[in-house]
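Summary of Year 1 activities. Much of the first year was spent building the evaluation harness for sequence design. The harness presents a backbone, in tokenized form, and records the residue chosen at every position. We chose the following record to illustrate the format because it has been used consistently in internal testing since the harness was completed.
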């Protein structure tokens, strides 16, 4: 009678001490890599926040620690927002991020964005960078907003000072607007103004400054106007005077011709309203009444309506 022989384990289930040590080493190296990558991303995000920006992360690749439900691991930075004043420092943080898909560069209109925009466009390809306007509109008629000291130190006041310098110093032929901008009695000038950066073809950055319902020097008259800045210089001014002619208009910044770049439109009254005014015209398929509609181009404003009937300059 044969003696009982224990069944030998399958070759696939055999482990040697060396194999276990190699597997442990490999897992340890992988976890160390993941921890190092996570710490690097944390440092990059902290540095971006210190500069006034921020970043967004998404899961990337295989991550053992992410499979174990440990937050913050197995991530990569795919989007970043950086202020225009800190572009040089931010680029040092972003230029080696291979997973980066988009970079938003923010501007507030208080300084010339041209140098920082040229720098960031020289580093990143066309599809990755987008200019962005910092929105800081306060509540109108707020007690603090009406405080003169706070107004003089506000972003709006610094924008107004920059636009005033560009228009008054560089374009003295804009006589009506010069008179308005230089008149210190216009305490409401610039307080409800809007600022917007616009990306033109060939990566050209334009700035549009719009002021509405401004009391003009002429008694009883009001007006709205838009100033176009290209590469820090005034490229054009357009505007209309209202008052006795009918309802006040509003100024819209909207892509009205479908080319992907917004136009500046001076709307007269409400859409579909019935009144007669010889200066009101319409765009095809648009019920709104327009005093003027202008394309934003590198060399200035270009009217989309027959003839340019603007009051400014």
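For this record, the design step produced the sequence shown next.
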């Amino acid at each position: 009678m044969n003696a009982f022989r224990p069944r030998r384990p399958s070759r696939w289930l055999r482990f040697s001490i060396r194999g276990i040590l190699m597997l442990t080493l490999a897992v340890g190296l992988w976890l160390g890599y993941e921890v190092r990558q996570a710490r690097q991303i944390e440092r990059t995000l902290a540095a971006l926040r210190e500069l006034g920006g921020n970043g967004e992360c998404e899961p990337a690749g295989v991550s053992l620690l992410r499979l174990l439900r440990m937050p913050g691991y197995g991530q990569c930075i795919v989007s970043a927002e950086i202020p225009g004043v800190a572009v040089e420092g931010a680029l040092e943080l972003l230029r080696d991020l291979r997973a980066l898909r988009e970079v938003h560069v923010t501007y507030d209109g208080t300084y010339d964005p041209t140098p920082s925009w040229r720098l960031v466009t020289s580093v990143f390809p066309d599809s990755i960078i987008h200019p962005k306007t910092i929105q800081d509109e306060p509540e109108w008629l707020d007690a603090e907003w009406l405080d003169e000291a706070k107004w003089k130190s506000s972003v709006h006041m610094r924008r107004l000072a920059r636009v005033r310098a560009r228009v008054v110093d560089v374009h003295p032929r804009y006589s009506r607007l010069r008179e308005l901008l230089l008149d210190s009695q216009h305490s409401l000038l610039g307080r409800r103004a809007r600022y917007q950066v616009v990306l033109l073809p060939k990566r050209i950055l334009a700035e549009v400054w719009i002021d509405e319902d401004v009391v003009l020097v002429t008694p009883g008259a009001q007006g709205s106007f838009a100033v176009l800045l290209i590469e820090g210089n005034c490229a054009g001014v357009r505007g209309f005077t209202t008052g006795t002619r009918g309802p006040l208009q509003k100024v819209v910044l909207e892509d009205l011709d479908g080319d992907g770049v917004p136009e500046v439109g001076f709307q007269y009254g409400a859409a579909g309203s019935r009144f007669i005014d010889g200066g009101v015209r319409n765009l095809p398929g648009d019920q709104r009444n327009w005093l003027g509609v202008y394309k934003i181009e590198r060399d200035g404003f270009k009217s989309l309506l027959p003839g340019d009937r603007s009051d400014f300059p």
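Residues 137-313 form one domain. Quantitative recovery figures across the full test set are reported in Table 2.
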